[in-house]
Design brief:
Blueprint: H1 12-29, E1 31-37, E2 40-47, E3 52-74, E4 80-95, E5 98-106, E6 109-117, E7 127-154, E8 180-207, E9 210-216
Antiparallel strand pairs: 1-2, 2-8, 3-4, 3-5, 3-8, 4-7, 5-6, 6-9, 7-8
């Protein structure tokens, strides 16, 4: 008499399928990470080539700069092109939660790669970043700038990060001459929902939690919650 096959644990088949989908999607997204250290995950983050949707409860940064630039892209037919974006940069920043959502076509089906960072506490700005660069296509939310704020400055004159000798790096955003630019000592964005053409944190990002998941179909990040209180100094 043959023995009945043992029942597989619920969800195992779906788990392997999700894993098979996640691997190429993860490579396409371009996320890299390092090991856990002192309870926080330290990573470098770079997502490029295709737009990524994002939400955050709050982003607060020092030495904020922005400039209009032309970002290289690939058209749907595969030919090279460009898109005009607002490139923003922070020397140092803190975020109150962050979700990135990117759709991927695999085998003729649509999947969504969801990357969530941080905790669920609206009172904490638990994610810390250094040398953040964001190519923004569109966004909605609330913006507050403080310190010395200059609007419509030459984009090529914007300053964000310093070199090892302590001098500001010239034109860190790579803006052409005579493009619209913004310079502020501090900038705080609340309840942001937007689309970025390129998302880079090549310096350092620390977060207490990072979760990667793959969902069938087109899935959006949850609407950002309103932050509570004010952030600490980056």
């Amino acid at each position: 008499m043959s023995r009945p096959h043992p029942r597989r644990p619920e969800g195992r088949t779906h788990g392997w399928r999700a894993l098979a989908v996640a691997l190429p999607a993860l490579l396409a997204a371009g996320v890299t990470g390092s090991a856990m250290a002192t309870g926080a995950l330290a990573v470098g983050l770079r997502i490029q080539d295709r737009p990524v949707d994002f939400t955050t409860s709050s982003l607060y940064g020092t030495q904020y700069g922005a400039a209009v630039v032309d970002q290289e892209t690939v058209r749907p037919d595969g030919t090279p092109g460009s898109v005009r974006v607002l490139r923003m940069g922070f020397a140092d920043g803190v975020l109150n939660g962050l979700c990135l959502s990117r759709r991927q076509q695999i085998g003729g089906a649509t999947y969504t790669l969801l990357l969530t960072l941080g905790d669920d506490d609206p009172r904490s700005w638990e994610i810390r970043t250094r040398n953040t660069v964001l190519d923004l296509r569109n966004a909605t939310g609330e913006l507050d700038m403080d310190g010395v704020v200059d609007l419509n400055v030459n984009g090529a004159d914007v300053r964000t990060v310093k070199d090892p000798a302590g001098a500001y790096v010239p034109n860190p955003l790579g803006a052409p001459q005579h493009r619209f630019g913004i310079q502020a000592r501090y900038a705080k964005f609340d309840r942001i929902t937007g689309t970025a053409q390129d998302f880079q944190i090549p310096g350092l990002l620390t977060t207490p939690r990072l979760k990667l998941s793959v969902k069938p179909g087109s899935v959006a990040c949850p609407a950002p919650a309103a932050p509570v209180g004010t952030p600490g100094t980056p």
